[in-house]
Structures are given as structure tokens and as C-alpha cells.
Specification:
CATH architecture: Up-down Bundle
Structural class: alpha+beta
Helix content: 55-70%
Oligomer: single chain
């Protein structure tokens, strides 16, 4: 493994720090927190100043004077409206924070899957390179045999075709590996160097809690569920806020009037009574929105439970396939190829049997690598559902 190779956790941490979508989701949390500051603010008083000259109707008896009137009005906020508004804003913060965690969990899972896909493509490229080298060696031997008259020229033509086919597969495998590398660099927003290496393997063990524990854990920690729970609470508090708004609102008013002869101080209350319209439209809309969020939450809980069951079944299937291939299938295919090669060298079997045996082994090896990739992908999906990615949690 080259120096500076990144582990899966380090790769996740790098991507979470560099990806712009994660930073944008973090900014949404700050926006929601600013909404709490706005919700807790008290209403500002209103001050009006009116002044001007006063001209009497009989100027000789009463000379002109200046008048001034200052009026201060302060709204006394409804405590029920205020409490519901603040609670709604705080629930909005929790919803934004849950969305932020969801973005991070999704990206961490994608980074993990893409990293193992790169490892899969690199393993396939190495396998195809080995097949190409083997076919080159077989062709060389056939060419020697044709030169001394021991082998028919038809065998050489067939060997040439197989070498070209192996070269084409080798080139395609290398291009697929390069494409997987570019995709991984895209998810990290270019933070990775072009020649980066990953300190991981498709043979890495998968450690997950038992299914029964996951069934209890995932609905309690899944960010999407937490977001909908916060939105449900926010919608409920919005209903309380709209219903509390029906209560009369009160403004305290103080007025000071001065002219040449009088100084007048007055205080009082201004009460707004909702007689003609009692916000039925706003209340009904809040009730309907609360029902919508609640139904979405119930469905999402069920859906996430089913996604967990599906991912777990995929994990078990991949595990069984890995055990099946490692239980003897690969070894038997390798032995069959060795026997076919030995028989061909002694002239007991034709070249076609060697090629067929080699194709069988190549297919088994490819399926074995794909099964290991499927195992890692299923584990990444389960970790995504439970928002678990050790590298980021350790960083916090």
C-alpha cells in the first residue's frame, strides 16, 4: 500500500469537509437558528411626533403658538402566541439539523460505496491483465508449435483472436477503474489528488449489530424520521399559534400634548378584537398541514423499516455468495484450469477446452468480487439508514 493512502473513514471525513452540499445544509441550520432569535424578539415600540404652529381665529386676542404631540405605543404580546412561535422556530432548528445529518449520512454512504467500487474495478482490471498475460503465453507456445509443425495454424488464428479479446477486456477494465476514480473525486469536490490510493480492500470485514437491535435503533436515529418528527411538532405548534392569535391583542398607548397654555398627558389601551374574522382559514390550513406531516412521518417510518429489511436481506445474500465462492468453487475452477493446461501441453486436450475452462474461472472470480462489493454496499446502506459513519463521529 503506497504511503499516504486513505482509509475509508479518512475518505469520508475528507468528502464531508469538502463537499459543498454539506456546507450548504450546515448553512440552513444557521438560518433556522437565526429564526429562533427572530421569534424570541419582543415587538418594538412605536413613537410618533407631531408638531406645528397654531394660529388663532382672532389673532389680536391670542397670538400664534407652537404645539407638539408625542405618542408612544407598545404592543403587549400574547404569551400563548409567543410561546408557540418560539417552539415552532426551535422545532425548525431541529428539522434543519436532521436534514443536515441526512445529507452527511447520504454522502458518507456514497463515498464508501464509490470507494469499494473503485477497489472492485481495480481488482477486475488486475484479473483481466492476468488473463491477457496468460493468453499471450498460450499464443507464444502455439506459435512455437506451429513453427515446428506440431500444431495446426488454425490454433494460432484462434489464439490470436483470444489475445485480442483479452486485450479489449483489459482496456475496458482499466477505463472502468479510471471512471470510478473520477466519480470518487467528484464526490469529494476535487479534494482528492489524481493519484490517490485507498487503504482498504473488498475483503474488509463487515461488523454490524444484530438485526433486532437495528430494528430498534434505525427508527430512533434515522435523520429523515427525526426531521419529520420535528416538522410534525412545528406544525402542531403552528396550530396553537393560530388559535392563540384569535385572542384579543392589546397595545399600551401614552400621549403627551403641549401648547402655550396646556400640557396634556394621556394613557390608555388599544384592544383589537377579532369579531368579524377569527382566522379560520389559517387554522384550517395549519390543521391540514399537521395531518399531512403526520401521515408522511408514519409512512416514512414504515418505508425505512422496509429499507432496513431489504438491506439486511441483501447483506445476507451477499454473505452467502461470498461463503459459497470461498467454500471451494474458486479452488475447483483453478484446479480445473491447471488440469486443462497440463492436458493441452501433453496434447491430450484441444485449446478450446483450455479457453473454456479459463472463461469459467474468470466468470467465477468476477462474481466473487461482485459478491464482496455487494456485501460492502449493503453494509453502507444500513449505516446510512442509521446515520453511522465512524470517521465523522470521531471528528466531532
Amino acid at each position: 500500500m503506497p504511503a499516504g493512502a486513505l482509509s475509508i473513514e479518512a475518505l469520508q471525513r475528507l468528502g464531508l469537509e469538502a463537499n459543498g452540499l454539506v456546507r450548504a445544509a450546515g448553512s440552513q441550520v444557521e438560518v433556522a437558528q437565526a429564526g429562533v432569535v427572530r421569534a424570541t424578539a419582543y415587538p418594538n415600540p412605536t413613537v410618533s411626533v407631531i408638531g406645528g404652529p397654531q394660529h388663532p381665529r382672532i389673532p389680536a386676542a391670542n397670538p400664534a403658538t407652537n404645539t407638539r404631540q408625542v405618542t408612544v405605543s407598545q404592543t403587549i404580546e400574547n404569551p400563548f402566541v409567543r410561546s408557540a412561535r418560539i417552539g415552532s422556530a426551535e422545532a425548525g432548528v431541529e428539522a434543519s439539523r436532521a436534514s443536515f445529518h441526512q445529507v452527511r449520512a447520504d454522502l458518507a454512504a456514497q463515498l464508501r460505496v464509490r470507494a469499494y467500487e473503485l477497489l472492485l474495478r481495480q481488482e477486475i482490471a488486475r484479473m483481466e491483465a492476468g488473463v491477457f498475460n496468460l493468453m499471450e503465453e498460450v499464443r507464444r507456445r502455439i506459435q512455437v508449435g506451429v513453427g515446428v509443425g506440431e500444431t495446426a495454424r488454425f490454433e494460432l488464428i484462434r489464439a490470436d483472436a483470444e489475445v485480442l479479446n483479452a486485450a479489449s477486456r483489459k482496456e475496458a477494465a482499466l477505463l472502468n477503474a479510471q471512471r470510478a476514480r473520477v466519480a470518487l473525486m467528484q464526490f469529494t469536490a476535487g479534494a482528492l489528488k489524481p493519484d490517490f490510493a485507498i487503504n482498504a480492500s473488498l475483503f474488509d470485514p463487515v461488523n454490524l449489530p444484530p438485526l433486532e437491535q437495528l430494528r430498534l435503533e434505525v427508527p430512533a436515529v434515522n435523520p429523515d424520521v427525526l426531521r419529520l418528527e420535528a416538522e410534525s411538532e412545528q406544525a402542531r405548534l403552528r396550530i396553537d399559534q393560530e388559535r392563540a392569535s384569535v385572542l384579543p391583542s392589546v397595545d399600551v398607548v401614552y400621549s403627551n400634548y403641549q401648547d402655550a397654555q396646556y400640557t396634556d398627558n394621556r394613557g390608555g389601551l388599544k384592544v383589537t378584537i377579532p369579531l368579524l374574522y377569527q382566522r379560520r382559514g389559517e387554522i384550517n390550513a395549519a390543521v391540514a398541514d399537521s395531518a399531512r406531516v403526520r401521515e408522511t412521518l408514519d409512512y416514512r417510518r414504515f418505508e425505512i423499516g422496509q429499507l432496513l429489511e431489504s438491506a439486511w436481506q441483501g447483506l445476507q445474500i451477499a454473505q452467502r455468495r461470498v461463503e459459497m465462492f470461498e467454500g471451494g468453487i474458486i479452488k475447483e475452477a483453478e484446479n480445473a484450469l491447471q488440469i486443462a493446461q497440463a492436458a493441452y501441453r501433453f496434447g491430450e486436450r484441444p485449446l478450446i477446452e483450455v479457453l473454456d475452462t479459463q472463461r469459467v474461472l474468470r466468470g467465477i472470480l468476477a462474481e466473487s468480487l461482485q459478491a464482496r462489493f455487494d456485501l460492502q454496499a449493503a453494509a453502507a446502506e444500513i449505516d446510512r439508514l442509521r446515520a453511522y459513519y465512524p470517521g465523522e463521529q470521531a471528528q466531532e
